[in-house]
């Protein structure tokens, strides 16, 4: 049974005991996902957990047929066997926990059903007792199976890691278990091989299929210096990789650990179910005892004892106890397969409440890959001259804009006496001339002032180039907007979600990016502390999600109702501070994930309402003798199966698949419209 339903089971991550023994006495352990091999789901006809409930059902039906045929003795024998087969799945565990008395909350539904079955037998209703045991054991077995199936997609992620890897040793190539890989090992990956752990390419070029990990449908070209994630499938080329993570501690195992911890934090609806179900079991026992005592007062003891047993079943909160866990596990499991890692049930529920989304700019809305997109020149100067002079100084700089300028220059001269002034620019000598390269706050643009202003209004970071005191050119560098950003914002607006951009960039660049993406509200020149304070203000007004990818986003991610990190393998601080992480970088995952979470919340609410309605309706009908034991058992257990099936619907996703194609990852593509900037 699920941990929420029956008490602690073996799981790789610590789990908060929820409604321990709230449903049954089954002790079926969850399949641990530690290790490289993943257990495949067992067909229902070979599932041992279903054998006893099925046998119980067959024997119960056989007893009914024999009774109708007049073979009462044979019918009684069949019903006794049916009762024994069904009761064996929950009675031993119920009694064991009752005797051990481990803490509070142990008076669960298993005890109610045990007492009801025992009482029915003592009253001579063996057939009804057998029906109760059969239906209850079947519902519990179906819940076990549904919970396992919900978790199976997550466990299957580990199957993406191969069992062995080929490693370069001094004595030659050697095949070793993937679990024994260590950081620094050199992996030899041939065509079609799957990468065993996170690594960086040191030799060779190829294409990597990362669709199973990041959801990016187009293979990514990789070469020396490029990172490769565990579970990626190599294309036609052969490459050598240097492991950047151990075999048992890489990005893929991290995803699994994060999602397996989803049971530890319970959401609002899960806590609601707990608050109702925990006290309900002892209340039902007290009410049933009072009903039985009523028989002493009225003198019709057998009638009221029978009604007390029916009340035990009618008021059982088993459906309520499983209303949320099945839905949460199904939703989180399906989201993880589609590139969205949700760390807890609470985070999943909160994700479904989000009405405002705040975006970081650099690396989230933009590619975080600055490029030279425009060059303005003074009279008598060419684009090539301006870039060559700037590149001569910038070739030794670590500034992000410097790399873009060097990459854009066809040639560069040799610079001497180079000195960098942080926050302003860089100076030096090129061909015997004094050269300065820096921002407009340090170097006056002179006759290029109008062009400089126009570049800034288009979202560019402007770098001025001065030779011997005269500006010879202005270089516009821009971090391009992601191709899917505008589509994502439009999809969020269509869902009625407000969008905000927070960035440390200047106001001109920020407004240009926001306009191109379709974001109306912009807050520029924000320090990390400013972003966090702004998120707290937004979250106080309405549930707010913050999405970012850098260390400077960590305070804002932690302050949001839901923090979302772009790329679970990205900045550790951002991922640690976030409640949700995307394994890929496609922004279209966001509106799909929000819609998925809202649908899951609706299913949870429906399950809780159905479970409560069953109790509210059946209780008076049982108390006043309108329904007998057999009818109440049937309605109650059918309702439980309906709740399970409804919860499993949350595993399905609607609309665009969360793994929509990423068109600009690791590939040279035509530049989109001129929008961009630098934070």
Mind explaining what this structure looks like?
With 679 residues, the protein is an alpha+beta fold. It has 4 domains: 3-156 and 258-337 and 596-651, no CATH class; 162-249, Distorted Sandwich (Calcium-transporting ATPase, cytoplasmic transduction domain A); 340-367 and 482-583, HAD superfamily/HAD-like (Rossmann fold, 3-Layer(aba) Sandwich), CATH 3.40.50; 371-478, Calcium-transporting ATPase, cytoplasmic domain N, CATH 3.40.1110. Helix content is 47%, strand content 16%. It has 24 helices and 23 strands. The strands form 5 sheets. The protein has a 7-stranded mixed beta sheet with strand order 10-22-21-20-11-18-19, with helices on both faces. Strands 12, 13, 14, 15, 16, 17 and 23 form a 7-stranded antiparallel beta sheet that branches. A 4-stranded antiparallel beta sheet has the order 3-9-4-7, with no helix packed on it. Strand 21 (562-566), helix 22 (572-577) and strand 22 form a beta-alpha-beta unit. Helix 13 (345-351) packs across helix 23 and helix 15 (383-394) crosses helix 16. The longest helix is centred in the C-terminal third of the chain and has 35 residues, at 589-623. The protein is elongated and about 115 Å long. The model is unreliable at 1-39, 262-266 and 655-679 (pLDDT under 50).
Structural class computed from helices and strand pairing: alpha+beta
Q: If you compute it from the alpha carbons, what radius of gyration comes out, rounded to the nearest whole angstrom?
A: 32 Å
CA-CA gap between termini: 50 Å
Q: Order the strands across the largest sheet as they lie in space.
A: 10-22-21-20-11-18-19
Low-confidence stretches: 1-39, 262-266, 655-679
Report strand %: 15-25%
User: Helix count, per DSSP?
Assistant: 24
Overall 3D shape: elongated
Please report the total strand number as a whole number: 23
Domain unit count: 4
Helix content: 40-55%
């Amino acid at each position: 049974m699920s941990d929420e339903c029956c008490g602690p089971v073996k799981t790789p991550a610590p789990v908060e005991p929820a409604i321990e023994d709230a449903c049954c006495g089954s002790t079926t352990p969850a399949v641990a996902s530690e290790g490289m091999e993943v257990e495949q789901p067992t067909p229902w006809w070979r599932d041992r957990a279903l054998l006893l409930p099925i046998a119980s059902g067959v024997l119960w039906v056989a007893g009914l047929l024999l009774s109708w045929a007049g073979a009462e003795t044979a019918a009684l024998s069949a019903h006794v066997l049916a009762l024994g087969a069904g009761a064996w799945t929950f009675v031993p565990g119920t009694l064991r926990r009752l005797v051990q008395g481990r803490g509070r909350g142990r008076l669960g539904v298993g005890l109610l059903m045990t007492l009801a079955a025992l009482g029915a037998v003592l009253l001579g209703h063996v057939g009804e007792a057998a029906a109760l045991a059969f239906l209850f054991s079947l519902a519990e077995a179906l819940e076990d199976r549904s919970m396992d199936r919900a978790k199976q997609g997550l466990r299957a992620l580990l199957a993406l890691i191969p069992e062995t890897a080929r490693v370069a040793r001094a004595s030659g190539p050697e095949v070793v278990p993937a679990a024994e890989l260590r950081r620094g090992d050199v992996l030899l990956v041939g065509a079609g091989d799957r990468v065993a752990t996170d690594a960086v390419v040191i030799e060779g070029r190829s294409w990597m299929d990362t669709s199973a990990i990041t959801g990016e449908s187009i293979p990514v070209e990789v070469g020396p210096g490029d990172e490769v994630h565990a579970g990626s499938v190599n294309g036609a080329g052969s490459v050598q990789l240097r492991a950047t993570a151990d075999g048992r501690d890489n990005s893929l195992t991290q995803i699994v650990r994060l999602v397996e911890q989803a049971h530890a934090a319970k959401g609002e609806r899960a806590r609601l179910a707990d608050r109702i179900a925990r006290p309900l079991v002892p209340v039902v026992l007290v009410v049933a005892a009072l009903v039985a005592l009523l028989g002493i007062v009225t003198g019709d003891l057998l009638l009221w004892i029978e009604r007390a047993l029916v009340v035990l079943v009618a008021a059982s909160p088993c459906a309520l106890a499983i209303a949320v866990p099945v839905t949460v596990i199904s939703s989180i499991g399906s989201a993880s397969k589609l590139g969205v890692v949700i760390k807890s049930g609470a985070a999943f529920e909160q994700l479904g409440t989000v009405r405002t989304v705040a975006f970081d700019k650099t690396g989230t809305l933009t590619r975080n890959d600055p490029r030279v997109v425009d060059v303005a020149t003074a009279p008598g100067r060419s684009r090539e001259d301006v870039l060559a002079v700037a590149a001569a100084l910038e070739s030794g700089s670590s500034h992000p804009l410097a790399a873009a300028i060097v990459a854009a220059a066809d040639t560069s001269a040799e610079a001497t006496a180079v000195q960098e002034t942080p926050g302003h620019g860089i100076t030096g000598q090129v061909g015997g001339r004094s050269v300065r390269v820096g921002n407009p706050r340090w170097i006056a643009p002179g006759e290029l002032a109008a062009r400089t202003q126009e570049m800034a209004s288009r979202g560019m970071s402007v770098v001025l180039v001065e030779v011997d005191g005269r500006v010879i050119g202005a270089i516009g560098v821009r971090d391009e907007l992601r191709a899917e950003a505008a589509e994502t914002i439009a999809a969020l607006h269509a869902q009625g979600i407000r969008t905000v951009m927070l960035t440390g960039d200047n106001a001109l660049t920020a407004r240009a990016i926001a306009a191109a993406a379709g974001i109306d509200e912009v807050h520029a020149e924000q320090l990390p502390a400013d972003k966090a304070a702004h998120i707290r203000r937004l979250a106080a007004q309405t549930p707010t999600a913050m999405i970012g990818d850098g260390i400077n986003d960590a305070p804002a991610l932690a302050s949001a109702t839901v923090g979302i990190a772009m790329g679970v393998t990205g900045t550790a601080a951002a991922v640690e501070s976030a409640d949700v992480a995307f394994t890929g970088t496609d922004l279209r995952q966001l509106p799909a994930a929000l819609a998925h979470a809202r649908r899951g919340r609706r299913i949870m609410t429906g399950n809780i309402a159905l479970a409560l309605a069953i109790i509210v309706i059946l209780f008076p009908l049982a108390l006043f003798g309108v329904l007998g034991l057999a009818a109440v058992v049937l309605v109650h257990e059918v309702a439980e199966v309906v709740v399970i099936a409804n919860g499993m619907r949350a595993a399905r996703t609607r609309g665009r698949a969360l793994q929509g194609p990423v068109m600009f990852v690791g590939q040279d593509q035509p530049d989109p419209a001129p929008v961009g900037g630098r934070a």
